[in-house]
Amino acid sequence: MNKEEELIRKKSPVNIRNKKASFEYFFIETFTAGIVLTGTEIKSIRLGKASLVDTYCTIMNGEMWVKGMNISPYFYGSYNNHEMKRDRKLLLTKREIQKLESATKQTGYTIVPLLVFIDQKGRAKMDIALCKGKKVFDKRQSLKEKEDRREMDRVMKNARGL
């Protein structure tokens, strides 16, 4: 990811993150995909009413799908409001899908959604990652590093205050 893409993600009015993903998985490679949505779904996402908890991606018939993504019904939607947890198609190139499909056939690898954001043209995009699951000791190591960083920040903050 280059600096321009990173800037777009930071400036986006919507940043829906999968916070558990970095704790549960090692990220091997990341991709950006478009999401096929209905009218009321994009309106709910623009309001930030979506969740990536317990979501995962699968490949069926050469197409990438995100499963378990929760988009709350749009408040002003009428009888044609959307389903909350339906499967949604992700838009990737054929080469990217084939690469991900061959990688996920190996044991221990999966595809996890990381972030949903709105790009400059107003379209919903999703960052997904090819991941390898962490073992228990890796998770403990992550927690220890996080605690150490927090302690270092606290010490540095106190040192600047004196």
Question: Which features would summarize this protein structure in a list?
Answer:
162 residues, alpha+beta, seven-stranded antiparallel sheet, 5 helices, 9 strands, 32% strand
What report would you give on this structure?
This protein is an alpha+beta fold and 162 residues long. Helix content is 36%, strand content 32%. It is built from five helices and nine strands. It has helices at residues 3-11, 21-24, 39-46, 94-104, 136-161; strands at residues 15-17, 25-35, 50-51, 56-60, 63-67, 70-71, 88-91, 109-118, 124-133. The protein has a seven-stranded antiparallel β-sheet with strand order 1-8-9-2-7-5-4. Strand 4 (56-60) and strand 5 form a beta hairpin. The protein starts with a helix and ends with a helix.
Number of DSSP strand runs: 9
Q: Give the strand line-up of the largest sheet.
A: 1-8-9-2-7-5-4
**Segments where pLDDT lies below 50 for 5+ residues?**
none
CA distance, first residue to last residue: 39 Å
Beta-strand percentage range: 25-35%
- Along the chain, the helix and strand elements come as HEHEHEEEEEHEEH
Taken from the alpha-carbon principal axes, the silhouette is globular
Q: Helical residue percent? A: 25-40%
Number of helices: 5
Biggest β-sheet description: 7 strands, antiparallel
Radius of gyration: 18 Å
Task: Please state the structural category.
Answer: alpha+beta
Mean pLDDT over the residues: 87
Q: What's this model, at a glance?
A:
This protein is α+β, with helices and mostly antiparallel strands and 162 residues long. The chain has helices at residues 3-11, 21-24, 39-46, 94-104, 136-161; strands spanning 15-17, 25-35, 50-51, 56-60, 63-67, 70-71, 88-91, 109-118, 124-133. It is built from five helices and nine strands.
